[in-house]
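EI: anyone free to look at a 132-residue chain?
SC: sure, send it
EI:
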Amino acid sequence: MKHILLNLSLFLLILFTGCKNSEQTNVNLVTVEEMETILEMDGVQLIDVRTPEEYSEGFIEGAQNIDFYSDTFDQDILKLDKTKPVVLYCKSGGRSAKCSEKLIEAGFIKVYDLDGGITQWKHNGLGVDILN
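SC: here you go
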């Protein structure tokens, strides 16, 4: 009986680990340089998941703000086109990583997450737009 439970436990561990890894392969963590290239592609949806206050202090040109902490966040991301690439960023990468998982679960095909967020973007000397 102990041997059967051990085998069952190992099977479940492999099953759940395999499922998690296959989902993660749909999210591509990208560098600033890679993101610059991706943003040149047609139809890319650039999403800033920071708060509106953070967004107003500076955002990457062309970004749409969808606040990760908003009560309507789950509904807002479903308004995006699931067939087109989505590029996400936040301040340093935490919120965009969580958002990436939600997008994959919702059936989005191609999701990119900026490693280091807008902080890394600025650190690399790239500019941001500011709301007036």
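EI: The first strand starts at residue 27 and ends at 30.
SC: 👍
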